[in-house]
Design brief:
767 residues; alpha/beta; Rossmann fold; 2 domains; twelve-stranded mixed beta sheet; 12 strands; transmembrane helix; UspA; APC_superfamily
């Protein structure tokens, strides 16, 4: 993608940017605060934090070599996890880098006051001046920014190495006792606190489009700078706590110019001057690197359509994203002048951990999504265990961060999500690699379950439950559907009429079974019954145990009849289905019952309590079929829908139409995945199958229009909820919108797996 940006940054400059983004508050402000939490074990806390950051560094290095674009972790999360999480990552990163850059500029206050107390009252003006200077420098030239960063980091490292070498001999052993004790109290909390010291390691990926030979430079710079900085942190903090008593020189909170105190003890006056200069240099480099990296997030988001187009503009003379830099620099100056930056920055520390978790997750999305043009030069080793460890470690640390930081991260995430919904969602058609991978896996799993159902040789026990209110047409349809199952597997159909009787004072808990001969409604329709309908059980020699009348209607199907009297037919139906171990229960769907949504109905009670799969049949004059429409309004097709459609189609000679809807702005990959899924289902069926995928913003009306010509509609039973009770559920609305006979399917396993998470996955990942 040609953008006008120049690849000016080599390995030294890129490494300096990474080190400069890390070595700042992490070494000059946080050691004292972390010491107050974990004591001398703060040393190993830095080591553990560095190790936990390594997975994200490896993941970011791989993705940066595959996508050397400005935007860094935002780009990876957006491409891997989709625009919503990409927006959260982009806005969150911009916000936090801007805050931390501002914090770095005012964070040198204790060090300036240490050598020049009179400057304390001017610190805000000095910080504002530095912010303006860095903003102008970033606008004029990225290359100059990289060169300045290299010089700053060089001076800083020289001073730090002098401190380590000069102070090592002055260490008091008793003060370092427990420095590497991983079981120390507060170690996890301290690790979570200093974790943000390494946040800058992946920020160099934010300027990947301006790096020379990114395939080699970025991994070397990112991983090399992390290892170097981790070692530097551990050595500096170890020497610092060894040469000075933190408890004596710092307040209880641990805040203060701790490195200045340590330098005075180890190196004397010249050492203090050198360390203070290094501290100011480090904090300045953090601000500069933060401004450079943060300004690339609005730029990258604008290029992807997630921010206004003007932030994408490149200056004709300077070849830099001027507006993005100016926005970031201006925001930093506002923060310096008006906000308690240190306190606010701490609130967002948890967000950095979330970003590292998302970066690891994004890599898994790319790997599992099998994206065609994903071809990294560097490949992270030990996949996926490294990423799993990184995400698990991050989640553990989040639990130790405290409530306020978590609320801060959640607040930023919610604000970014609202921005996405209001400004972005309707104009974006793409999706992340992980979403496509999950959709494909859902489809693969559904095909596997359907294949297993078709290939099963187990017998099937079907209960056709009728009542005095069940229409003759529905009874006829239910027996027909149950009997058709025998075309695919050995099936036993029990047609049971459940009659309500008056309440009895000494009634038993369960239903009373009355064995009968042929039911009266069978005789009423015997004259015009089709060949498949059993109407004369007395003519059959086949009998079942207990004297229940039975007729054999096909080589794999037997139908029996009986009547059951009870005081409550819905409980009797569930009792019979439960204690006689039926696999499938057929009931009549009565539209008038489904209007009683708010307080439920007998049918809904049965759906909630029966241990079997359930078919709800609504008869509208079914006399055979040329076309059977099978509709999924929630995710993949339930295998039972396909089995029933295939069985009825075999008996009627019908064609099956697999019908699903996607949004008008759905990505092409979604249609391709659905087409492949439909083709695999078609290969399992024994009758002709065609696929219809419609693009519509009104799912129900679109599906109803294409399902209307069918002679039979097969769809699902939606999960219950207050919204569905008040406004109606999609599948019920669909059935009410067509004129054909309808069968609604609820599987027992599907009902158990139902829930908010599953519905969200099905709605937003598959349908």
């Amino acid at each position: 993608m040609a953008t006008g940006l120049k690849r000016d940054l080599g390995l030294p400059s890129v490494t300096a940017i990474a080190i400069g983004a890390m070595v700042g508050s992490g070494i000059f402000i946080l050691p004292g605060i972390a010491f107050a939490t974990a004591g001398p074990a703060v040393v190993i806390a830095y080591l553990i934090a560095g190790l936990l950051v390594l997975p994200a560094a490896l993941s970011a290095s791989e993705m940066a070599t595959a996508m050397p674009e400005d935007g860094g972790s935002y780009v990876y999360v957006e491409r891997g996890m989709g625009p919503l999480l990409g927006t959260i990552a982009g806005i969150g990163n911009w916000f936090m880098l801007s805050f931390k850059g501002s914090l770095a500029l005012v964070g040198g206050v204790p060090y300036l006051v240490y050598i020049a107390p009179d400057l304390a009252e001017y610190i805000i003006f000095i910080a504002l001046g530095l912010a303006l200077m860095f903003t102008l420098l970033n606008i004029v030239s990225t290359k100059s920014t990289g060169s300045l960063q290299l010089a700053i980091v060089g001076i800083m490292i020289a001073a730090m190495v002098w401190f380590i070498l000069g102070g090592y001999g002055s260490i008091i052993p008793r003060q370092t006792t427990g420095s590497f004790d991983i079981a120390s109290e507060g170690i996890l909390a301290a690790t979570g606190l200093v974790f943000v010291s390494y946040a800058g390691v992946i920020k160099i990926a934010a300027v990947a489009e301006e790096v020379k030979d990114p395939g080699k430079t970025i991994p070397r710079a990112m991983i090399g700078s992390l290892l170097f900085t981790t070692a530097l942190y551990v050595l500096i903090v170890y020497v610092a706590i060894g040469v000075v008593d933190f408890n004596a020189v710092l307040p209880e909170s641990g805040e203060g110019a701790i490195m200045a105190f340590a330098a005075e003890e180890a190196l004397g006056t010249f050492g203090v001057i050198a360390v203070v200069i290094a501290a100011l240099m480090a904090l300045a480099s953090t601000a500069n690197a933060g401004l450079l990296s943060a300004s690339r997030f609005p730029f990258a988001m604008a290029r992807d359509g997630l921010a206004p187009e003007r932030f994408e503009a490149i200056h004709d003379k300077y070849n830099t994203p001027v507006l993005s830099i100016a926005l970031t620099g201006g925001a930093m100056m506002v923060m310096i002048a008006t906000l308690p930056i240190e306190d606010v920055a701490k609130l967002g520390s948890a967000f950095q951990i979330l970003v590292f978790i998302l970066v690891n997750l994004a890599l898994i999305g790319f790997r599992e999504g099998a994206v065609g043009d994903y071809d990294p030069e560097f490949v992270a080793p030990f996949y996926p265990w490294v990423q799993i460890i990184g995400m698990g470690g991050g989640l553990i640390l989040l639990t130790q961060m405290g409530l306020i930081p978590l609320l801060g991260a959640a607040g930023i995430s919610v604000a970014a999500a609202l921005y996405y919904v209001v400004y972005v969602r309707d104009s974006i058609e793409r999706e992340g690699a992980a979403r496509e991978a999950i959709r494909r896996n859902i489809g693969d799993d559904a095909v596997k379950q359907t294949r297993e159902l078709f290939e099963s040789d187990s017998s099937y026990k079907v209960l056709v439950a009728t009542t005095e209110q069940t229409s003759t047409g529905a009874k006829r349809d239910m027996v027909r559907v149950g009997s058709d199952m025998g075309r695919l597997r050995s099936t036993a159909v029990s047609v049971v009429e459940f009659l309500d009787i008056p309440h009895q004072i000494f009634a038993e808990n369960h239903a009373k079974v009355q064995q009968t001969g042929t039911l009266e409604w069978l005789a009423d329709i015997a004259d015009d019954a089709p060949e498949w309908m059993p109407t004369d059980p007395e003519a059959s020699a086949l009998r079942t145990s207990g004297g229940v009348d039975t007729v054999e209607i096909a080589s794999n199907t037997a139908v029996s009849y009986q009547r059951i009297d009870s005081e409550d037919h819905k409980r009797a139906i569930v009792d019979v289905a439960t204690y006689r171990n039926y696999d499938l229960l057929l009931l009549e769907r009565r539209a008038d019952e489904f209007h009683r949504r708010l307080f439920g109905s007998p049918i809904e009670w049965i759906l909630e309590n029966t241990p079997t799969d359930v078919l709800l049949v609504e008869d509208r004059g079914f006399n055979g079929a040329d076309e059977i429409a099978v509709v999924a309004t929630r995710g993949a097709y339930d295998p039972l829908k396909i089995l029933i459609a295939d069985a009825v189609a075999e008996e009627t000679g019908a064609e099956i139409n697999l019908l699903q809807a996607i949004g008008k702005n759905a990505p092409e990959t979604q249609r391709e995945t659905l087409e492949a899924y439909h083709n695999e289902l078609a290969a399992l069926c024994t009758v002709p199958v065609r696929s219809t995928i419609i693009e519509t913003d009104n799912e129900i009306s679109g599906l109803a229009r294409f399902a209307q010509p069918a002679d039979l509609l097969i769809t699902g039973v939606d999960q219950k909820g207050l919204r569905g009770r008040i406004f109606g559920r999609p599948s019920d609305q669909l059935v009410d919108s067509v004129e054909s006979t309808a069968i609604m399917v609820q599987t027992h396993d599907g009902r158990k797996r139902g829930g908010v998470i599953k519905r969200l996955l099905m709605d937003h990942l598959f349908s």
